[in-house]
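Q: What would this chain look like folded?
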Amino acid sequence: MPAICDANGTVRAWPGRPSWVGLDLEAALARIFPDTPVARADDGDLAALAESREAGCPDLMYLGVGTGIGGGVVFEGRFWPGPARGSCELGHLVVDGNGARCDCGRRGCVQAVASGPATLRRAAGLRGREVAFAELVEGARASAFWARAAIDESAAALARAVIGVGELAQLDLALVGGGFAAGVPGLVESVAAQVEELARPGSRRIRVRPAALGGRSSLYGAVLLAEETFGPVPAG
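A: My prediction, written as structure tokens:
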């Protein structure tokens, strides 16, 4: 679930579905599936868990770049800080105090700077007309200034998030995924280069590379959560 829930599973905030605020999610799922055990987690956390297992790395962050910025942190093989305390809302780290307004109401969140729509709006401003995703991809491949500048600014925001979380959690790996990131040439490489530039002398170096599991990462993470919570699912 992308909603913000309290420790008991009640939805506290979900900008995309405000009518869900106050819903006891766990109780609702129990009514729908009365004979089935239920577990819940943030979709970004689930993606991070699956990517962690796939990479064989117990300490990493995952950033999913699409229409928004999702993601999560896995620390010592587990969600960090954990469902009872909430998810690492990587998309809402403030990286530019004077930046564009985010859907959450603040200015300069990673999501407001580096999401797919934000990158396309910036590219349009630089080019002087609306830019479609396919045009951005073509422009990036041709090293057009307006495309590369728009992409590199998004990468800079993502790099600041990686560095900031890395200073706190001392992680080994940052994986960048999501449909937008996967489709834009050079985005992940730009994040990696800017993370290296921002690294503090003597600090742990965080490797940056593309995520491996594509659009099914949250689904794979949900299966892992079920197996780790309730045991392996019987075959057949």
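The chain has two domains: 1-38, 42-230.
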